[in-house]
């Protein structure tokens, strides 16, 4: 089933025919970027379980400096790159974007060699924002969060935005504080900050 996927502002994106792909809704994306406001500008953004890249595209449109999207489905990762490359003024910024077709559970393992970037600049990145939206029923949230907060691409003050189902609660941990939780329809957003 093909969805009618649009960015904030109305620009249409290509979407997946894969019925297992559940794009972050426009309402949730608007909420994220309204909460973050101008802090996204000149930031380094990591989009985990990126699907067809709607959140990465929004980060680009809100001024993110570097964007890395991780998506294990080969078709979705191709669509993600195509969507990012369709954005305004992208010709001068293609080197600021990396889409990696890899399993997030493997890519976020602490001490993993991440020299799969096309640019050496990306290997040294510490991300300001990390967005993750694993499949709701997969129960990956806790595992991925623990892996993220033990990786060398995170720094003190990094904000991790986790989208998950209403019936899931993410607890405070010695590695992070929860500073905001919002509910939108069937989705919940938990904002974590690296201590």
From TrEMBL:
Superkingdom of the source species: Bacteria
Protein name: Ribosomal RNA small subunit methyltransferase D
GO biological process: rRNA methylation
Database matches in PROSITE patterns: N6_MTASE
Organism encoding this protein: Prochlorococcus marinus subsp. pastoris (strain CCMP1986 / NIES-2087 / MED4)
GO molecular function terms attached to this record: methyltransferase activity; nucleic acid binding
Keyword hit for Transferase: yes
Gene3D superfamilies according to UniProt: Vaccinia Virus protein VP39
Keywords, comma-separated and alphabetical: Methyltransferase, Transferase
């Amino acid at each position: 089933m093909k969805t009618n996927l649009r960015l904030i502002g109305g620009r249409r994106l290509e979407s997946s025919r894969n019925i297992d792909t559940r794009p972050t809704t426009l309402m949730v994306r608007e909420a994220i970027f309204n909460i973050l406001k101008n802090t996204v500008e000149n930031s380094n953004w990591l989009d985990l379980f990126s699907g067809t890249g709607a959140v990465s595209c929004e980060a680009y449109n809100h001024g993110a400096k570097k964007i890395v999207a991780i998506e294990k489905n080969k078709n979705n990762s191709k669509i993600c790159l195509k969507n990012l490359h369709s954005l305004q003024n992208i010709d001068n910024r293609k080197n600021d974007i990396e889409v990696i077709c890899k399993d997030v559970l493997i890519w976020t393992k602490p001490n993993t060699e991440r020299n799969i970037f096309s640019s050496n600049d990306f290997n040294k990145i510490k991300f300001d924002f990390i967005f993750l939206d694993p499949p709701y029923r997969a129960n990956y949230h806790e595992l991925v969060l623990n892996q993220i907060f033990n990786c060398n691409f995170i720094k003190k003050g990094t904000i991790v935005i986790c989208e998950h189902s209403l019936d899931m609660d993410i607890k405070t941990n010695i590695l992070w504080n929860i500073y905001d939780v919002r509910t939108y329809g069937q989705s919940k957003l938990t904002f974590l900050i690296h201590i």
